[in-house]
Amino acid sequence: MKQRRVFLQCLLIVALTSRVWKNSQQQPALFSTGDSGHGLRYSFLAGFPQRLTTGQRPRDSVRRTKLQRCSVSHDASTWVEMPSHPENEKVNQVLQRTGDLLKKIQEKAVQPALRPPCSRGHVKSEGQLIGLEDKVFVNNYLNLGAAEVVGFDYDYTLVNYKPALLDLIYDLAKTHLLEEIRYPKSMGKSALKQYDPEFAIRGLAVDIETAWVCKINFRYRVAVAFFGRERVDPQEVKAMYSSKTGAGVVEYEERRARLRPLNDIFSMVEACLLADVVQWFKDNEVPFDPRSVVNDVLQAVGKAHMSGAMHKSVAADLSKYVEPDPERRMRQLLVQLKDVGKKLMVVSNSQFWYVDAGMSHVVGEDWQTFFDVVVASAGKPGFYTQSRPFREVSKRTGRVKFKPIEELEPDEVYCQGSVSELMRLTGWGYGEKSSADSDAGYDGSRIIYMGDSIFADLVEARRQYGWTTGAIIREVSDETKVHRGAAWRQARHTMQALLHCMQLCQEKMRPGGVNDPSRRQHSVHDHKVLDKLESLAAEAVEREEALVNDNFGSIFRTANANNFGSSPSFFARSLSRHADIYTSRVENFRLYSTDHRFYPSSASTRPVHVATHMTDSLLERLRDDNDFDEELEL
Questions:
Q1: What are the backbone dihedrals phi and psi of residue 554, each rounded to the nearest 5 degrees, phi first?
Q2: How far apart are CA 468 and CA 146, in angstroms?
Q3: 458 with 579: CB under 8 angstroms?
Q4: Which residues are paired to 559 by β-bridges?
Q5: pLDDT class for 514, splitting at 50, 70, 90?
Q6: Residue 135's closest CA among 575, 488, 592?
Q7: What is the mean pLDDT of the segment spanning 542-553?
Q8: Separation between Cα atoms, residue 377 and residue 414, nearest integer Å
Q9: What is the sign, positive or negative, of the torsion defined by CA atoms of 4, 7, 13, 14?
Q10: Distance of CA 185 to the CA centre of its chain
């Protein structure tokens, strides 16, 4: 009896073991290749592979006809399936190598350098390590030692603000809408609660006719649009801005007439407030004229600035609104520049009492001793385009004096004025012993001016007077922090690997080489493979952009119209055109020597056919020795 019981137990164990093994065999393989038509599955965003939850076996994967879009949430992993070619084994070999590389990227077994290598990394200066967050990026060559004058804007340049400032502007503008323009009180209680820093980025534009908040790419195409807090369907966007020639480009006259740019940090409040107001009208089914709403919102935000309410609130509580500088980094920079004989100036649109309060808080009560010229209430960009005389401002009372100005004195404060008058009175840009009245040649590149607003601070200074311009872009620091994260790097590496995969696959889709007359067009299966790879690459770009901002992505890039890859944004194009250098904070210059020579990246100055020859570690991993042999034969 005992022997029989032992025998039955053994049979039970064998049966259970067999069932467990059978079930394990039915589970889909995570990184395996099936027969023709099957694919490879990989998990992106998560730091490690996870089990498939669809319950499908590998042979069932051919029935999946549509790839699910990835979730906006960055917590969950996203499963994608590599395609395979039923007729071309060479293409499948490329797909296999790409799949293996994606697996290694996902498992962090490989950390390839992002291309181009020369545009990333760190530089050393005077024994200090300068990270990407503090680095000065270069569009055009700049010899800091040759500069005679360094000028600064005030807001978000010499002084930086805490997020509370945008909250304040939003609240002041909301109050104006509700109390002065008489918008519904219920709107203030439900929709206009507080400023949302996660909604918008700068570099957007408001369509005055539709009240859409738009993002424009470098070719002047509208890439993304929001109507209220809801994204506008891409097909509707395309239909709205289709040009007469069919190019899809918003023409210059139309841009000027209907697109109002949002280029500085303050303008992010305008985008958020407009979206909140429009959404309330939509949710409550209240008919409204978009043009009137846009004008009301812009007027409300402008009132917050022009009324002085914002400035008074900030000056009354500097510790709440102004970022502290406990290490006196700004003062260090000013001392360094003055010690080597640089002339310094500040030109601000703010009133002097406001500038004085902020500079005393950040630099010290003696801040004005560092500057040779102080101009408040300058009225930029009219300061560059008009010919206006300077007027002296009483530092004690703030009253504007009437005496003519024939010399700009270091201890005084001036308002209004113009660049032409500045050059005439100082002789800057004409050499040490020359003046504007002499016959010596003028060289505006000897003057560097830095500000946070590309169009208000930099465009005309560079265009009309040849000044060297520096843009202060806080988002550089924010985005480089995202770039250091594993999720962003995995998405970027994935997109690059898939791009190389598509290029290599097309090389293999013509088995007889470029001179093969039998294959002048891709086959149906070729197109299916390429379509699937483009879809996967588009999702990688989508994940990459969402890590910066869920709605509009990076201020420097936009998704392409074909839903594959990305291209520079209009903001990035403007930055490259009108700024010779840019960095996240002006005090970053203290990390460099005062005669440092800033060289542009070799990749940014080369045409594509030249930059292609640069080393790319991802491409090298996807190629095999036969690929190089085929290239040599061609």
A1: -75, 150
A2: 11
A3: yes
A4: 566
A5: low
A6: 592
A7: 92
A8: 8
A9: negative
A10: 36
Q: Tell me whether residue 417 is exposed, middle or buried, using C-beta atoms within 10 angstroms of its C-beta: 0 to 12, 13 to 18, 19 or more.
A: buried
Q: How far is CA 377 from CA 296, 416, 421, in A?
A: 25, 6, 15
Q: Dig out the tokens for 106 from the structure.
A: 């996902």
Residue 465 contacts residue 442 (beta carbons within 8 Å):
no
Cβ 541 vs Cβ 495: under 8 Å: yes
Q: CB of 28 within 8 A of CB of 57?
A: yes
Name the residue with tokens 């970027």. 492
State the pLDDT confidence band at 45, using cuts at 50, 70 and 90: very low
Residues 45-53, mean pLDDT to the nearest whole number: 31
DSSP state of 241: T
| 289 pLDDT tier (thresholds 50, 70, 90) | very high
| Cα–Cα distance, 512 to 501 (Å, whole number) | 19
pLDDT at position 602 is 65
- Residue 200 near residue 265 (C-beta atoms within 8 A): no
Q: What is the number of helices (H) and of strands (E) in the chain?
A: 22, 22
Whether the per-residue pLDDT at 578 is higher than 70: the answer is yes
Any idea what DSSP says for residue 69?
A: P
pLDDT of residue 103 exceeding 60: yes
Q: What is the DSSP code (8-state) at residue 590? A: G
In the chain, what's the furthest Cα-to-Cα distance? 122
Tokens of 182: 């008489």
CA atoms within 13 A on the CB side of 502: 19
Q: Residue 522: its pLDDT value, please?
A: 87
- Quick: pLDDT tens for 312-330: 999 999 999 999 999 999 9
Q: How far apart are CA 569 and CA 251, in angstroms?
A: 16
- The token duo for 547 is 């890590």
Taken in order of first residue, the domains within the chain and their CATH numbers are: 89-116+475-513+522-567+618-626 (no CATH), 125-160+324-474 (3.40.50.1000), 164-318 (no CATH)
Read off the pLDDT band of 133 (50, 70, 90).
confident
Q: Give the tens place of pLDDT for each residue, 530-546.
A: 999 999 998 888 888 99
Return all residues near 280 (Cβ < 8 A) that are at least 6 apart: 187, 190, 191, 192, 286
pLDDT band at 64 (very low <50, low <70, confident <90, very high): very low
Q: Alpha-carbon distance 71 to 237, whole Å?
A: 23
What's phi and psi for 215, nearest 5 deg?
Answer: -115, 130
Q: Give buried/exposed letters for 122-145 (b at 16+ CB in 10 A, else e).
A: eeeeeeeebebbbbbbbbbebebe
Extract the tokens encoding 590: 């203290």
State how far the Cα of 181 lies from the Cα of 192, in Å rounded to an integer.
Answer: 15
Which pLDDT score, from 0 to 100, does residue 346 have?
98
123/117: higher pLDDT? 123
Q: What is the dihedral of CA 445, 449, 453, 454, to 10 degrees?
A: 0
Q: Is the pLDDT reported for residue 565 higher than 90?
A: no
- Complete edge-to-edge strand list for the sheet that includes strand 343-347: 137-138, 581-583, 468-472, 447-451, 149-152, 343-347, 373-376, 413-416, 390-393
Are β-strands 212-216 and 557-559 bridged in parallel, bridged antiparallel, or unpaired? Answer: unpaired
Radius of gyration of the chain, Cα coordinates, nearest whole angstrom: 30
* Spatial distance between the Cα atoms of 43 and 174, rounded to a whole number of angstroms: 44
Are 133 and 429 contacting, i.e. CB atoms less than 8 angstroms apart? no
Give the whole-angstrom CA distance, residue 286 versus residue 614.
57
